[in-house]
Amino acid sequence: MTTLLDALIAFLIVLGGAFALIGSWGLARLPSLMTRLHGPTKATTLGVGGILLASMAWFPLHSQEWSSHELLITLFLFLSAPISANMIAKAYIHRRFRRCSAPEDVETELPAPPGEGTDWATFGSSKFDDTKTGRP
Amino acid sequence: MIDIALKIALACVALAMLLNLWSLLKGPTAPDRILALDTMVINAIAFIMLFGIFADTVVFFEAALLMAMVGFVSTVAYTKFLLRGDIVE
């Protein structure tokens, strides 16, 4: 039983390391930031998740002590990774595409969103534009 | 068995951090560098956890938790600075 659990823990550890490596390789290799964003935010978070699961199983099994830190790290990391990815993508859009106040590295016009009278959420919604709805 | 797995995973994460360092130096834009730094913090957390299992101690978990929190706050602060030119408005 312990041997089986050890094998499972070893597998989780190797899987976590492999995921971290694949995510970072994607970050170094992919062409633009919007594609590069997927490597770290998915693969690396999964890798850390695998390692945390392994340590959550390892410590109660072998040294009879349990700590809630792994659970806290997992929760915090899995909650914060999408938020930081969203913030990075927003900063990238606002600096790179037209309609922003950074003229040096402006490259392309942002494509129009689907639908009539709509706008990308990060540039403000024209649906709630003051001039159209007559809001104060 | 665990020892071999830990060594493989530590080598993988160390290589991943070197790749992150390379993309941090390469850039080319500021959001790219922020993304590389954020990934590097996540990999550092993984490295600390692996080393904690390797040394059979739970002391390093506080450090990993602190790195998770400070890494997230620093990423948000950097992107906020890029977006608004100010961190606390």
TrEMBL record, chain A:
Q: Where are the membrane-spanning stretches?
A: 6-28, 40-59, 71-89
* Top-level taxon: Bacteria
List keywords of the entry alphabetically: Membrane, Transmembrane, Transmembrane helix
Query: Keyword Transmembrane helix, does the record have it?
Result: yes
**Record Pfam families:** PhaG_MnhG_YufB
Which residue ranges are recorded for the region named Disordered? 105-136
Q: What is the protein's name according to its record?
A: Na+/H+ antiporter subunit G
- The organism of origin for this protein: Novosphingobium decolorationis
Q: What is the lineage of its organism?
A: Bacteria, Pseudomonadati, Pseudomonadota, Alphaproteobacteria, Sphingomonadales
UniProtKB/TrEMBL annotation, chain B:
Q: Which UniProt keywords apply?
A: Antiport, Cell membrane, Ion transport, Membrane, Transmembrane, Transmembrane helix, Transport
Report whether Methyltransferase shows up as a keyword of the record: no
Q: Which residues form a coiled coil?
A: none
| Annotated TM spans | 6-25, 34-54, 60-83
InterPro entries, sorted: MrpF/PhaF-like
Q: Where in the cell is it found?
A: Cell membrane
* Membrane-protein topology: Multi-pass membrane protein
Primary location class:
membrane
Name the family. Answer: Belongs to the CPA3 antiporters (TC 2.A.63) subunit F family.
According to UniProt, the name of this protein is K+/H+ antiporter subunit F
UniProt source species? Novosphingobium decolorationis
